[in-house]
């Protein structure tokens, strides 16, 4: 009997080991290939991959590495919970921004009354979506595009009858204050800082900054069109402006003066973002005629490179100096995200983030974006791992992230409508 028990125990150990080996065919954990996870399962170091055979009694261990054993196969367990923010009574909604208090802004369909419905700006807080459009005109559509930590919101409205016209407002504690457009017809706000300064456009060709009821035209670099892209809390503004010679150049506006940041040797450039240090990122035509991502800091423009591809562009920078953007082949058929980090504007390292179109980065180095190419999925890159945030049933996109493990965007539902969504980190992960 003792001999039979020993044999049975040995057979069980072999069977258990064979399942673990099937999870990582002969590969030690140190050599785990891409799209797998190093793990310690049943006392053995293995590589886990979705779709592999699994043992149900090890489910607690699989969960530590983001997997669940179902019907004998491993599936990815999302670390994120998707919350449908609903609408204002209509069919669809989209989230566009979030602050550290968890207040979310965007736009949502209203309920159709008498055959008339519209999209209205919303503020979502404490589990409730609030309609910010108090103008009372059924032919006016609105969208909330940005929010600061004080809960001040930039709202743009679009009149559709009897003619089309854009207007911009500051929403603050239930009060809408219209932004003076300096005689322009179409006024749009794009961003707001912690001082309540709002930047935007006048008639789609002039850039402005507004504060406390005063609108200032930013001027230009000698051409006819200027666009503001971002503002930091010091009031420094960046964007692109046509030069007298024709091509658009990146600019930095501060203390009432606009400075031309130049190019990487080519004809044109444009700035996309600025951090608290005054470092500016964007893209510029290089001497080769190809578009390259740049960092402007320490009074010079530095080429960030292309990871061996033809084109690159930088889209955002955090206060730590970490930069995100994308690199693309000459044909445009393959795009990857990148993260550039390092000291100052030189000796920087560029990391390939995989098939993601990066949208934003927070101060913890968490990067959000959308999958490339094909079926759209909201993604998070963190600590070298690119993960899916999940959906409400269909394609999804990410729009903004704060420092509290809260991400917002939109997702198609199983019914086919698009709804604003909030992703929060699952408890215990």
Explain this structure:
The chain has about 425 residues and is mainly beta. The chain has two domains: about 80 residues, no CATH class; about 350 residues, 7 Propeller (Methylamine Dehydrogenase, Chain H). The strands form ten sheets. It has a four-stranded antiparallel beta sheet with strand order 5-36-35-34, with no helix packed on it. Strands 6-7-8-9 form a four-stranded antiparallel beta sheet, with no helix packed on it. It has a four-stranded antiparallel beta sheet with strand order 10-11-12-13, with no helix packed on it. The longest helix has 22 residues. It is globular, with a radius of gyration of 25 Å. The two termini are about 45 Å apart.
How much strand content do the residues show?
A: over 45%
- Biggest sheet features: 4 strands, antiparallel
Name the CATH class of the largest domain.
Mainly Beta
**Overall 3D geometry?**
globular
Structural class: mainly beta
- Helix proportion of residues, in percent? under 10%
Radius of gyration, in Å, reads 25 Å
- How would you write the strand order of the largest sheet? 5-36-35-34
Total strands: the figure is: 36
Question: What low-confidence regions span 5 or more consecutive residues with pLDDT below 50?
Answer: 1-29
- The span between the termini is 46 Å
Question: Can you give the mean pLDDT?
Answer: 89
State the helix count. 2
CATH homologous superfamily placement of the largest domain? Peptidase/esterase 'gauge' domain
What's the CATH topology label of the largest domain? Answer: Methylamine Dehydrogenase, Chain H
Estimate nothing, just give the exact number of structural domains.
2
From the coordinates shown, what is the CATH architecture of the largest domain?
7 Propeller
